[in-house]
């Protein structure tokens, strides 16, 4: 069996997955905060920043279609 007939299906599946992953920053930030709170993590800050403003911060996610990064800092 050739992979050529399956190629369009694979491309559509990949594109759909990438589109679904493009979450608004507030939504992704809330999801990550809920997971951290569930694990008992305290005194942290999650901030959405432009990609070129990340610096040395720890990046924990990408949002708004890849235009911003979520950074994590323990206080």
TrEMBL record:
Residues 1-20 form the signal peptide. Keywords: Signal. It comes from Pelomonas cellulosilytica. This is DUF1161 domain-containing protein. InterPro entries: DUF1161. It holds the Pfam family DUF1161.
């Amino acid at each position: 069996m050739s992979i050529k007939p399956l190629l369009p299906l694979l491309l559509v599946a990949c594109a759909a997955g990438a589109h679904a992953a493009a979450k608004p920053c507030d939504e992704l930030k809330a999801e990550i905060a809920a997971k951290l709170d569930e694990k008992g993590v305290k005194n942290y800050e999650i901030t959405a920043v432009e990609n070129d403003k990340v610096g040395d911060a720890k990046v924990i996610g990408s949002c708004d279609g890849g235009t911003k990064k979520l950074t994590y800092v323990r206080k």
